[in-house]
Amino acid sequence: MTTLREYLDTTECKDSLKELIELIAMQAVPIREAFIENQSYAGTENASGEEQAALDVWSDDHITKILLESNLVREIASEEKDDIVKNPDAKENYAVVMDPLDGSSLIQVNLCVGTIIGIYDNGNALSLGDELRTAMYMLYGPMTVLTLTVGDGVYIFALKDGVYQMMQGPVSMPQGKIYGSGGLRKDWTNEHGDFISIIEKDGGKLRYSGSFVADFHQILKYGGIYCYPATINNSIGKLRLVYEANPIGFIAKQAGGRISDGKTDLLKKVPEKPSEKTPIYVGSKNLIEQLENIKIR
User: Which ranges of the chain have pLDDT less than 70?
Assistant: First the structure.
């Protein structure tokens, strides 16, 4: 099987980017090992006012420390921090955006969670999603899986004996019928409810775990759409543009899918602040186009 390094050596990535990708990917090992000792809540809130699990804090501190020590990264924007961490002495011009542990509330019930990463080579964490140089996520399920794009297709690797081995690639997202939607049904807008009804009438199958990265991985493999919409009382949604939408949307686009806020391509939206929220619809291209045609708001 092709290893992660062997794959990266076939790409146009600079050696420093290869080093950074491998460094981040291998943090899956200590993060998984930290699960048992970090089951509780930390008693603190993240930049979006959400209660932090102990492993949220641990993962954020750990990855930030590793990135700063590498001296490869000039800016780090994390869902768990209010401000962008800057390293003016970095020897490279990379900026990393991250959700250190997506779906952390599921750890206590042993469901799948993950780490979402985006890498820019312009030193600016608040850049367009379309300007990402790399997007990746590590998924902690029965296997430790790395899904990666460096702007030339999407590839999936699994960690075995300390080495990531390629399982699939390039990945092409099917035009499937899996769907999942966050928010309470009673709070959905009429437009969003109508859209979900259309999917259900067309044979859509509900799959929703509460872990964005895990739910998206199903969409990537089988096709369909993941939604966390605006609701009647919340027009800005729940998920973050910088840490979640942009990296996942970039992967979706590289696999032939799309991401939207219901009206426009999120990868073309300039972030105004690190913790900016947005409605998210990501998945098969045909469903996103259908969505935008009925003008979800």
Answer: 38-52, 295-297
